[in-house]
Write a sequence for this structure.
DNA sequence: ATCGTAGCCTGGAGGC
DNA sequence: TGCCTCCAGGCTACGA
């Protein structure tokens, strides 16, 4: 499940393998994978062919590559990608056999292809215009303007996030998953950060003391950075491994997916709860359920 | 305005 | 073996 660290790994790969390349033929094999491109697959192809790929950028779980062009009416466009649940961006020789869930091929001028592969088609590609972020005013793709600065960005404002979090009236995990409050965190890193901060997911945000919020947001940042350090070592495999394997599934996780296994801190068996039609993993001893919990 | 939920989607796992 | 059900979850749209 690509969350911020995994998407950042992909961004670095794009930076290394496709920046500066010019796009040749583009082929959309699954229209659903470009459904966010409002004008349709053919328009997406037209807007991509002949463009030069710039330096890959990321905010939260969104990834984009600016499209340079001499044509002024096309200035300020970018190829936007969201990996959803199962999306991958692979760079492969154009002649390499198609992957099982290959959705979009983008031919490059160096004999390679940028390939969007996505089993469950929650992710997708689009060509969109850049606009000012509602949060910090930075140029981001139009569909990303509502996504807040993520914890790894230089402009990340701990005080601002602390304030916004404390003004919420909801459970703390719900808040962490809200990409307008803090971006880049999904189910895995929310659970890992809550465990690190020794906080239960149902803790009502309005009962959080300022110091607790700081501790939590620090835990979020630490968890993301550590995951990135782990993933970063194997990221190139994404682009050269014949299987296109990412290697981000075998990271060491304290609680996520660890039901009944011992908490690394105290040995108590990790518990799995139903939460938002999904799962929440906690150590029942390190993260006791609050008396007045809020989902 | 804010909060909470349904639905999108496919393949692997496990029960019978 | 094969059929069935459950489960994974980021995001948007929509209802309360």
């Amino acid at each position: 499940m690509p969350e911020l660290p995994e998407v950042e790994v992909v961004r670095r790969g794009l930076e290394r393998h496709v920046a500066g390349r010019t796009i040749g033929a583009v082929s959309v094999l699954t229209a659903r994978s470009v459904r966010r491109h409002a004008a349709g697959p053919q328009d997406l192809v037209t807007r991509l062919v002949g463009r030069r790929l710039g330096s890959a950028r990321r905010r939260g779980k969104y990834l984009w590559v600016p499209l340079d062009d001499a044509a002024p009416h096309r200035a300020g466009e970018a190829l936007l990608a969201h990996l959803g649940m199962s999306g991958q961006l692979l760079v492969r020789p154009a002649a390499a056999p198609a992957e099982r869930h290959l959705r979009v091929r983008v031919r490059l001028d160096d004999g390679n292809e940028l390939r969007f592969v996505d089993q469950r088609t929650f992710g997708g590609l689009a060509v969109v215009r850049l606009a000012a972020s509602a949060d910090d005013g930075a140029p981001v793709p139009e569909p990303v303007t509502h996504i807040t600065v993520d914890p790894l960005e230089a402009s990340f404002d701990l005080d601002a996030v602390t304030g916004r979090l404390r003004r919420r009236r909801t459970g703390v995990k719900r808040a962490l998953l809200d990409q307008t409050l803090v971006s880049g965190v999904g189910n895995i890193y929310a659970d890992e950060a809550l465990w690190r901060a020794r906080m239960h997911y149902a803790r009502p945000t309005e009962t959080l003391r300022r110091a607790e919020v700081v501790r939590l947001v620090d835990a979020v940042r630490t968890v993301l950075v550590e995951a990135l350090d782990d993933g970063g070592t194997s990221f190139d495999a994404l682009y050269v491994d014949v299987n296109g394997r990412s290697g981000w599934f075998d990271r060491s996780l304290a609680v996520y997916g660890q039901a009944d296994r011992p908490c690394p801190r105290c040995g108590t068996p990790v518990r799995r709860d139903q939460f938002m039609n999904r799962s929440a993993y906690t150590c029942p001893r390190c993260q006791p359920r609050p008396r007045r919990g809020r989902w």
Q: What stands out?
A: DSSP finds seven helices and twelve strands in chain A. Helices of chain A lie at 4-17, 41-48, 158-167, 172-176, 187-196, 210-232, 237-240.
